[in-house]
Design brief:
The structure is a single chain. The chain is an alpha+beta fold. It folds into two domains: 2-63, 2-Layer Sandwich (Dna Ligase, domain 1), CATH 3.30.1490.20; 69-257, ATP-grasp fold, B domain (D-amino Acid Aminotransferase, Chain A, domain 1, 2-Layer Sandwich). 22% of the residues lie in helices and 30% in strands. It has helices at residues 16-19, 44-53, 109-125, 168-177, 210-215, 244-254, and strands at 2-4, 24-28, 38-41, 59-63, 69-77, 83-85, 89-94, 97-103, 130-138, 144-150, 190-196, 219-223, 233-240. The strands form two sheets. Strands 5, 6, 7, 8, 9, 10, 11, 12 and 13 form a nine-stranded antiparallel β-sheet that branches. A four-stranded antiparallel β-sheet has the order 1-4-2-3. The protein is globular and about 55 Å long. The two termini are 34 Å apart.
Amino acid sequence: GQVVDARGQQGDLHGALDSVGGRGILKTSELGYDGKGQARVNTDAGLRAAWDDLGRVPCVLEGFVAFEREVSLGVARSPDGQVAFGPLVENVHRNGILRTSVYPAQVPGSTEVRARELARAVADAWNLEGLITLEFFVLPGGDLLVNEVAPRVHNSGHLTQDGGGISQFEAQVRAVLGLPLTDWAPLLPCAMVNVVGAAGPDGQPLTPDWAAIDALSGTRVHLYHKDWRAGRKLGHVNLVAPDPETLRERLASLEPLIP
């Protein structure tokens, strides 16, 4: 990415878009998450306008990547150097916010091997004590490109709460305390759907069909007890099934129940 000058001088804007391939995403260097603090740009005029809209704060301009899918992987490391991994999870976003995470990811086994190699390299290089999560773009041909490193347990790992085995939260505690570490992939196929504040055409909040969600086999609701706000993560629904095909069928039934 290329850093845009934040001192009222637009020199860094000139030629920046061409340097990343003519299309990109302008992101604030700090406090950007869940689609906030970012804008897609494909013209120099649009880049200038986007920087103005973001308050002319320090930003990074990232080139647009034509990826096939996004996956994420948690890695935990203890003070004595033990390393363990979470499941490779496939993610889908909507409006810049994570919508669904599914395990197992529909990728070849070699993709997970490479993701673990990269995650271990980061954990060892940073002398990690605890758990971090890496997000990857899977490129055409199968190569992986690290898109983000979250220094914590991650939204995409919440499905480990209900898939059997230990959760990412237990893995974090084990790593920090130096307890024995083990990989924490779920024992069953599972998915997560985020509950995000949504509004209808009249601006009024839309509510998930909780009764239908509870009636759907394999679901468990996790709410954060936050006040409603458009675009705010209010909770998530985990879904477990005995096999990947049943999981896909149940997920297709669950998603329309959550605006």
